[in-house]
Write a structure and sequence with these properties.
Elements lengths: L3 E3 L2 E4 L6 H11 L7 H10 L5 E5 L2 E11 L2 E12 L8 H13 L3 E6 L4 H13 L3 E8 L11 E7 L18
Parallel strand pairs: 5-6
Antiparallel strand pairs: 1-2, 2-3, 3-4, 4-5, 6-8, 7-8
Bound molecules: coenzyme A.
The site of coenzyme A has 22 residues, from strand 5, helix 3, strand 6 and helix 4.
Length: about 180
């Protein structure tokens, strides 16, 4: 195992063997858009450097996928993040995001949220607080822009991330696994 250990949990760079587990986590999250199983495999192959997984006993219990904006390569865009329901509330999402910001060296992070996702909004606000940096929000896509029944997406932009204000590398995981 090449990843960084947090208690019994290991944060790692995804490999294609994680793709199926990531698809299942997205499916079971009941709040993420479920993309094709193929897209998760392809993401693990081509965007592993801007993505992370967390495993317990070799099972993927959380993931974050992201990419650097082609026209703004200092900006890490978070595409999806999910933690298995049984493992929520222990700091795993925060650990994944901190790990990815450090690993990519991104100066800013962008993510979209829907207004009904309190957990997601709290998670990104907490990220800005941990790093002692700013967060701005604007509507990115209105409901009318989606061809199907989809809530508006609001863009959070967080940063700048400065290495001097990085949170402690101490495991943030809370409680027993
Ligand atoms: C959002 C999600 C990834 C959070 O994962 P998690 O591991 O439980 O989050 P963490 O324990 O790392 O918490 C990070 C911060 O968010 C806050 N938070 C997490 N869940 C919360 C909730 N349900 N309500 C309020 N705040 C919440 C935590 O309190 C923490 O902030 P703090 O450090 O100030 O206490 C998880 O709920 C999930 O998988 N949801 C379904 C998928 C989803 O909605 N993804 C986001 C789409 S953008």
């Amino acid at each position: 195992m090449s990843g960084k250990t947090f208690g019994q949990a290991v944060v790692d760079v995804p490999s294609t063997s994680d793709g199926a587990g990531m698809w299942r986590l997205a499916r079971d999250s009941r709040s993420l858009d479920l993309n094709s199983s193929y897209s998760y495999l392809l993401w693990c192959r081509d965007f592993a450097g801007t993505s992370a997984v967390i495993r317990v006993d070799d099972e993927v219990i959380g993931f974050v996928t992201g990419y650097l904006r082609p026209n703004q390569p200092d900006t890490l865009v978070i595409w999806q993040i999910a933690i298995a329901e049984a493992h929520r509330g222990r700091g795993f999402a925060a650990t994944l995001l901190d790990n990815l910001v450090r690993r990519t060296g991104a100066r800013h992070l962008e993510a979209t949220v829907t207004s009904d996702n309190d957990a997601s909004i709290a998670m990104f606000r907490a990220l800005a607080t941990r790093w002692g940096t700013g967060l701005t929000g604007n509507q990115l896509f209105s409901a009318e822009q989606f061809p199907d029944d989809h809530a508006p997406e609001f863009l959070f932009r967080i940063g700048p991330f400065l290495s001097g204000s990085a949170p402690s590398q101490t495991p943030r995981t809370r409680g027993e696994l």
